[in-house]
Amino acid sequence: MRVEDKWAHLRDWTSARIALGHAGNALPTSEILNFRLQHAQARDAVHVPLDVPTVSRELQALGFDVVGVHSAAPDRATYLRRPDLGRQLHPNRDLFHPSRLREEAIAQAGFDVAFVVADGLSALAIHRHAAPFLATLTPELHDWRIAPLVIVEQGRVAIGDEIGARLGARLVVILIGERPGLSSPDSLGLYMTWDPRPGRTDAERNCISNIRDGGLSYAAAAHKLLFLMNEARSRKLSGVNLKEAAGQILSS
Asked: How would residue 246 be classed by pLDDT, with cut points 50, 70 and 90?
């Protein structure tokens, strides 16, 4: 017989696996099955391929010029084994040649910000949240000169530094699928870096994470990012020396 945990009411406030109850000395069967389901969803999310054509259409509908590139990791298996290859652009892939970024930069120099969208460890997060988040954010960027948006297949966070440098952007923001958790296979993360260039460290970035249903809302995340972007442009820095102090958003 299942015995409910006395803390069960706390489950109304979190998706964490707490107060699961017990049946004898074991977890209830329903909780074991739910764990297996969530574990499978998290594993599957890592291997879902990025649907570049669909994501491109969604972002173009928001008014972005879109450029597609590929990291130096040729496939998903290599990407998972070789994180270093996901941090650099593929040098010779004709369809996604990095020289296209240089051409875009020359065509319109002086970008304030470059947005990069990368599959990371959950393309599912990009499919569900990239376009809706940017639709929330971009109406607030009235005085920002925005570079063509770059979609990266098999990308890691640091690849945004090379892309931002090639575009000549003063600031880069990469939207990336975060490592899936048992209750969050589709969590979107944002990483912002001032003066992007290869060799930047994680200490020189600001991160906003857990953007998803049940996590941080698009409005709250956009509010925080806009604050950080304006502060970075004003103070010409990002990372540990730039604190997020946007305050509470009035509505979401």
From this structure: confident
Got the DSSP string for 178-214?
PPPBTTBTT-EEEEEEES--TT--GGGEEEEEEESTT
Tell me the pLDDT band of 198, cut-offs 50, 70 and 90. very high
Tokens of 50: 């990025």
Predicted pLDDT at 252: 43
Report the relative pairing of strands 171-177 and 66-70 from DSSP bridges: unpaired
Complete domains list, the chain, with CATH: 47-235 (3.40.50.11240)
Q: What is the DSSP letter of 222?
A: H
Query: What is the three-class DSSP state of 176?
Result: strand
Per DSSP, the residues of 89-158 read B-SS-GGG-THHHHHHHHHS---SEEEEEE-TT-HHHHHHHHHHHHHHHGGG-TT--BPPEEEEES--TT
CA–CA gap between residue 121 and residue 147 (Å, rounded): 25
Span 157-176, pLDDT tens digits: 999 999 999 999 999 999 99
How far lies 131's CA from each of 58, 60, 100, 147, in Å?
6, 10, 23, 16
For 45-100, how does the pLDDT look when each residue is reduced to its tens digit (9 = 90+)?
777 899 999 999 999 999 999 999 999 999 999 999 999 999 999 886 543 455 66
The answer to whether the CB of 183 falls within 8 A of the CB of 196 is no
Contact in structure between 60 and 66 (CB atoms under 8 Å): yes
113-118 and 22-23 as β-strands: parallel, antiparallel, unpaired? unpaired
Can you tell me the distance from the alpha carbon of 141 to that of 226, in angstroms, rounded to the nearest whole number?
8
